[in-house]
Amino acid sequence: FPDDFDLGKYSMSSNPRGNVLIINNEILKDKFFIDGASVDFANLHNVFNKLGFKIHSYSNLEFSPMRDAIRNFARLEDHANVDMVAVCILSHGNDYEIQSTDGVGFNREKIIEMFNNQNSHLDGKPKMFLFHSCYGNIVDYGVPDKKEPINMEQTEADAVPSRERTEAPFARFREQREATRFREQTEENSRSSCEDMVIIHASVPGYSTCRDPKTGSWLVEMICEVFQKYSHKYDLRYMLDIVAAEMSKKEASYGEKQGIEVSSRHFCKKLMFNPETAVQRQPVVTVPVCIGTQKSSKRKQKEVLATPVLTLRDAVYYEMSHKKRGKAYIFNHE
Question: pTM of the predicted model, to two decimals?
Fold first, then answer.
């Protein structure tokens, strides 16, 4: 390997920069209403507009229209003329699915699969997914911020996996391997099916999310503030590190915390949005905000996108100065 390894940057010079799909399901089955979702919708609309994206937005879709909207967006021929694609879905959900307004779950992996390299217009282009929904029902009240030794006896006992948990991933791997074995190779060098993807989940598996009815969800608010302030300076993944660092500081009135999950799939280059040369394509979105009492019909229009929080700090480094950097456990199941 060379001493200086430059992975390069994704091309981000087209106008529009990319296409973004925003789906906001805020009124769900049995009239369940997600407070602040309209604020998230407007904030995402405004920040992607300022970044120079062409916006495709929908609100309150049942399963079939939602599936068709995602499928049609994935098949857009216009993707060939832009440098990036983003998908943002705001709704309720669980460990594996995000819901339509009629309460039907849509598997997140099925959504991601629509945008893989089998779609010729997206091959080699960066793709960002934001799934904002609960990943479960557990409320995270955090742990004391103390540097105390962990009770390894308890954690090791809890960490023993069942046979069903360990066999399932390997069974799926074997199926994929068999399918690949008989696939006809048309080129000498092939590429992975899932590449150039960054996937953002609003919480870690099993846990719920936090939101403010007036300012929207913690994550979307923070993403919009960070992107608005730093997109001219930092790449996408570094900005998401800043988002995670700032999210770790937030705490609700009863001590609730929220951790986010960011993963990448062969996202090997830096992505700079280059907003200085982007063309804003749509006017700022406003949402009606109720003021006064609940019975009052007085309403006003308000620009939702907030001024960037000037106290945001750059992401910091983890301390790695101890003589023994850490311990590694290697499990070899033969």
Answer: 0.72
